[in-house]
Specification:
Layout: H1 5-23, H2 26-34, E1 41-45, E2 59-63, H3 68-92, H4 119-151
């Protein structure tokens, strides 16, 4: 009786990890683009909750687009094509067709409105503040040095008379 060696050795998580790696290949991205999707999507493992040692055998597809229809279309095309990635990975490992694991879409694509990233803005504020702090400390140091120089009179060595013999 034939068995799926990938499932026997690594379990479903192993196959999903291989599929995520294969779906990150530029060839898969080009297939999605050729079918009408956008190239800026990512395929990754579903994040496991805290305390879970073995990751869940789920794949997540994310994209950020300017319009909702383009994002939904890209995710739908990538999700529809992920089963071929599963098939190709298992075929290259020599798994027989009846024993192959299949990808099942468990959640339809949904969108969430997101704000633009504020990382660049925060970094600009941080570095701007750092520059102002350095400038202020240099100005304060120059001012303090000038004030102290005016208050302190230089000590001029006086000639000490030599004893005459």
């Amino acid at each position: 009786m034939d068995v799926n060696g990938l499932l026997e050795e690594g379990g479903p998580t192993f196959i999903t990890n291989l599929a995520v790696i294969a779906a990150s290949d530029p060839g898969f991205i080009q297939k999605v683009v050729a079918a009408g999707g956008a190239p800026n999507f990512t395929v990754k493992n579903f994040p496991a909750p805290m305390g879970v040692l073995v990751p869940l055998p789920l794949i997540m597809i994310e994209t950020t687009q300017g319009d909702l229809s383009s994002a939904m279309q890209t995710i739908a095309i990538a999700a529809g094509s992920i089963d071929t990635v599963f098939r190709d990975v298992q075929q290259s490992a020599g798994v027989a067709d009846p024993q192959m694991a299949r990808a099942i879409v468990v959640s339809p694509a949904r969108s969430a409105l997101a704000m633009p990233s504020r990382t660049r803005s925060s970094a600009g504020v941080f570095f701007g503040g750092l520059g102002l702090a350095i400038l202020a400390s240099v100005i304060a140091d120059v001012f303090a040095t000038r004030v102290l120089r005016k208050k302190t009179q230089p000590v001029v060595p006086q000639a000490i008379p030599r004893p005459t013999e």
